[in-house]
Specification:
mainly alpha, 434 Repressor (Amino-terminal Domain), 4 helices, about 55% helix, globular
Length: about 80
């Protein structure tokens, strides 16, 4: 299902895509990222695939700390 920019859930779609991009740039599988941040693999898959409705800033912060990336990386391409 495609979500338009006017939908409030749009930000979750973009952030999910950026999580996938960042994960792949670090040569990690979803399982490896889940293990690293101590979350369930299904959660990672759902977030990356747009099936997860919400997630916290704390979740992003944990990933940013473990992968040594800036929080702003999760919000790249938000205006496209």
């Amino acid at each position: 299902m495609e979500i338009s920019k006017s939908d409030n859930k749009y930000i979750y779609v973009i952030v999910g895509k950026n999580i996938r991009r960042i994960r792949k740039a670090h040569h990690l599988t979803q399982v490896q990222l889940a293990d690293l941040i101590q979350y369930n693999e299904g959660t990672i898959a759902n977030i990356e695939n747009n099936s997860y409705q919400t997630f916290s800033l704390e979740f992003l912060y944990i990933i940013s700390k473990k992968l040594h990336v800036s929080m702003k990386e999760f919000f790249e391409n938000i205006d496209e």
